[in-house]
């Protein structure tokens, strides 16, 4: 039995006005100027304010916020950080819109999206030699 469905003919109106609440004052730039991914063991982000953040691929793999690594409901880590080798590399780094990067890691994991805000917050500090 086929039911004929008619769609509501919505009135094409003007888009609702955006809320006018002021954005929170950022403590640090979360806009990258340059993202260097040529070294597969690390990603270097140079921010708009001149600050430079270096993540090793291993650190990023452990930070992965995707649903396979972090429980979406409880926010608990599913990924065991000790299972991530220090020598982890990334095989691909892509921009996601203008707010994040996604990485493919040598272990094949590629479902994580790393928002710039998070990357700036989790800045591990100067790379240890
Ligand atoms: Zn993940």
3D structure, described in words:
- The chain is an alpha+beta fold and 129 residues long.
- The protein has a domain at 32-121: NE0471 N-terminal domain-like.
- 10% of the residues lie in helices and 25% in strands.
- It is built from two helices and six strands, in the order βββαβββα.
- It has helices spanning 57-63, 116-121; strands spanning 32-36, 42-47, 52-56, 90-96, 100-105, 113-115.
- The strands form two sheets. A three-stranded antiparallel sheet has the order 1-2-3. A three-stranded antiparallel sheet has the order 4-5-6.
- The radius of gyration is 20 Å and the shape is globular.
In short:
The chain has helices at residues 57-63, 116-121, and strands at residues 32-36, 42-47, 52-56, 90-96, 100-105, 113-115. It is an alpha+beta fold. The protein has a domain at 32-121: NE0471 N-terminal domain-like.
Give the SSE layout:
Elements: E1 32-36, E2 42-47, E3 52-56, H1 57-63, E4 90-96, E5 100-105, E6 113-115, H2 116-121
Antiparallel strand pairs: 1-2, 2-3, 4-5, 5-6
Bound molecules: zinc ion.
Zinc ion is lined by residues 64, 66, 68-69, 109, 111-112.
């Amino acid at each position: 039995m086929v039911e004929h469905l008619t769609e509501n003919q919505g009135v094409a109106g003007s888009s609702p006005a955006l809320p006018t609440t002021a954005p929170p004052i950022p403590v640090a730039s979360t806009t990258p100027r340059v993202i260097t991914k040529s070294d597969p063991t690390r990603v270097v982000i140079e921010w708009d304010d001149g600050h430079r953040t270096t993540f090793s691929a291993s650190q990023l793999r452990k930070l992965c916020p995707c649903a396979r690594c972090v429980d979406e409901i409880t926010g608990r880590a599913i990924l065991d950080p000790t299972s991530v080798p220090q020598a982890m590399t990334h095989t691909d780094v892509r921009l996601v819109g203008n707010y994040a990067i996604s990485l493919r890691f040598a272990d094949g994991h590629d479902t994580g999206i790393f928002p710039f805000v998070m990357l700036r917050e989790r800045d591990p500090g100067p790379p240890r030699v």
